[in-house]
Amino acid sequence: MIYHKLIDKLHKETILSPQEYLLLIKNRDKCSEYLFQNATQVREEIYGNVIYIRGLIEFTNYCKNDCLYCGIRRSNILAERYRLTKEEIVSCAEEGYQLGFRTFVLQGGEDQYYSDGILTDIIRGIKTKYPDCAITLSLGERSFESYLALKNAGADRYLLRHETATKSHYEKLHPKEMNFDNRMQCLENLKKIGYQVGAGFMVGSPYQTEENLADELIFLKKLQPHMVGIGPFVPHKDTPFKDQLPGTVDLTLFMLGLIRLTLPNVLLPATTALGTIDPLGREKGIRAGANVLMPNLSPVTVRKKYMLYDNKICTGDEAAQCIDCLKRRVSTTGCEVITDRGDYKEI
Ligand code: 5AD
Ligand code: FES
Predict the structure, then answer these.
(1) Distance CA 99, CA 95 (A)
(2) Given the CA of residue 321, which atom of ligand 2 is nearest to it?
(3) Which residues lie across from 50 on neighbouring strands?
(4) Which residue has the least CA distance to atom 1 on ligand 2?
């Protein structure tokens, strides 16, 4: 079959033309199982049957941005804002360490309260205590100097989803003061400084076309990120996109499979958003080629306040419950959660 042939070609050459990607995306109902087989095979060859876990610490939901899709955008006056102290953040890491986490992801809105001085102090605090752990930052757009200072303090990785590789689409998802070129520049700066870099986008975001999705793969192939975070768009009731349709499970899984074959070594999470639109979404993500899970380590008291989208899962569970639940879920896929930093494998 022509689609299987194209998947064989992608498996072998790790790149297709935009037209070929588009053809597969449009005909995904006819070839998704075959894609997933190929994708899991590639993942197995490089990473084995191992799933890496990252402890997500959502330490502030203040944000100066106003992205139209996001529940913690600054215009959402209904969002109850919070900030965690250094002590609270370190204590989340302590709990995580006991549970077997060796990567901590410090994620927050773009909150100017957290100056370079405050952040470097937090990073050093965690790194001194747990030198065997990796620190990933996910703090949005900052200056080159700031990214450099945070790297020098001990941060290892940085996640900054580009959200869409198409400038005109970016402008439909963001207010005028946000700038596509600046975001791309940030990704370049992060790479230049030597972070392991994560990019990513939402699947099924408003105005996204299948052509846009084909272009995402071309863009990612050029960028060569170490990580790619994708999840379905899920509307949030207090945003301008409240009445827009959510992204679908099948399209998100198909994109995961295509990403695995395009960037064989990439670290690829099955995201919480995917688990939100389908109770078995994360398991299906793993079967489609994902190899990372990012459960929440934030204190349960603030979990419900970090609502980027409606009905987010795991907001009532203690970290320990979450990790047990995840281990059980992962075991149904034939894979296994391990205690490891889970760095990018170069070859
Ligand atoms: N649905 C799905 N993902 C969302 N994000 C923000 N808002 C939503 C939403 N409504 C994603 C963005 C952002 C990441 C932290 O969460 O891609 O980069
Ligand atoms: Fe959090 Fe299941 S993974 S409760």
Answers:
(1) 6
(2) 4
(3) 336
(4) 322
| Tokens encoding 140 | 């949005």
Residues found in the chain: 347
The preferred substitution site among 76, 309, 310 for testing ligand 1, maximizing ligand atoms within 8 Å of CB, is 309
How much distance in Å is there from the Cα of 272 to the middle of ligand 2?
9
Q: DSSP string covering 26-89, please? A: HTHHHHHHHHHHHHHHHHHHHHTTEEEE-EEEEEE---S---TT-TT-TT-TTSPP-B--HHHH
Q: What is the pLDDT of residues 21-75, one digit of tens each?
A: 999 999 999 999 999 999 999 999 999 999 999 999 999 999 999 999 999 999 9
Nearest-angstrom CA–CA distance, 221 and 21: 12
Q: Taking the domain 2-338, which CATH number applies?
A: 3.20.20.70
Walk across the sheet containing 196-203 and list its strands.
Answer: 55-60, 103-108, 134-138, 157-159, 196-203, 227-232
